[in-house]
């Protein structure tokens, strides 16, 4: 039988819009001769719904929508993900389920057994786990319908299993000979290759075909890459969907041949595509059409502006230069040149008078005090006030431009350069910012060469350089990777990297002290295995051991 994978981009809570996508994709697949189409995990309501599942009306809409999809897709079987009521003693009222729709009705439901609680996942908070798994017969096969994490506990692949049961193994032992996995698996660097290798291990060990249909699109901080796969019994990929865009993929369940759609290759190209997709979906799904970015002439704001222009169109992006008393003419020129190269609107608003007004207001109360970081932060906060004023007046979302290196050590100003509705590159270390910028310019030269070459500076005091306050970014980013993503102690980082132990300890202390800033930051797009945000939960009032 010809089977289709409907790799769609759902919006959380948009039942009518998500249903329309599934009905349209099903119609196309039916016309192409497919007898079955699979859609991703919780495709009916969108993933992750989080605490929306606690609303009875939300749960009811799931069932109503599925019944409507079943009626309107007759002639092709459909598998989709939805929230269903739970009848369990766990106290959770709902389950994360997959439904098979045939002949205009729901003919089979299987709920998710393994509920992840690590990184960005907190499904035990919202869902009750399935107590058992069952097979269903279709096109001459005994199908094992699994949902995302249900396939992530193969003891032959993982050094240490997180769960005591392996739903896939149990279903194979019960006679299953075809594994279907409907998924909402977020992107991070290396995730696509890791996911493929894991599924290939299952296929080879159990000698069964494995099918994965994965959600695509951005929902809050998460970016889903799609990259749906079909693997044969030897673990070879025989069909695949595109990355970072909706797609419809076909394969034959008997001879295990299928369509191989081209995927984006290379780390820089993949990360850039993820940032564009995540930015576009965040802006549009939140109801905005335009974006505002403070353009400093530096590389971080330049990369953010390029991403925004690609995400929503240059005509919908406003760049704002806000020179202060220590801004160089070169930085002003670089910001204007970038805006011209991108074709975005550019406004130049000096903060000098606002800064002087603040200084005069504080003159008496600051009498006898030396100038320090306070005056630097006033400049940054004056800029933040202007950006938010423009946001209010024009109904545009402000995109903050801080990178992961700065956010990690708190080299940023609360209510200043941190203002905004989305922190586009907050999970992108400074060294990767440069690599992405070179990648952008290899496609089309838009970022001024001077921006690429000059030493990073906040330009909040005379001749200021980032290196005055921070270790070189090559060292800083390596320490952040080891400490934030891998939780290595200072001694191990210093020994493994050959770094000065005091430098490492200083960076770790800065990371720990800056937790209060990060918890007030705008949500950022996750592109690493461990991003700042709700996937990394640390207390603010805590003592650092570094």
Q: What brief labels describe this structure?
A:
546 residues; alpha/beta; Nitrilase/N-carbamoyl-D-aminoacid amidohydrolase; Rossmann fold; six-stranded mixed beta sheet; 17 helices; 19 strands; elongated
Précis, in short:
This protein is α/β, with parallel strands linked by helices and 546 residues long. 37% of the residues lie in helices and 18% in strands. The protein is built from 17 helices and 19 strands.
What does this structure look like?
- By secondary structure, the protein is α/β, with parallel strands linked by helices.
- It folds into two domains: 2-255, Nitrilase/N-carbamoyl-D-aminoacid amidohydrolase (4-Layer Sandwich), CATH 3.60.110.10; 270-470, HUPs (Rossmann fold, 3-Layer(aba) Sandwich).
- It is 37% helix and 18% strand.
- α6 crosses α12, α7 (299-312) runs parallel beside α8 and α7 (299-312) packs across α12.
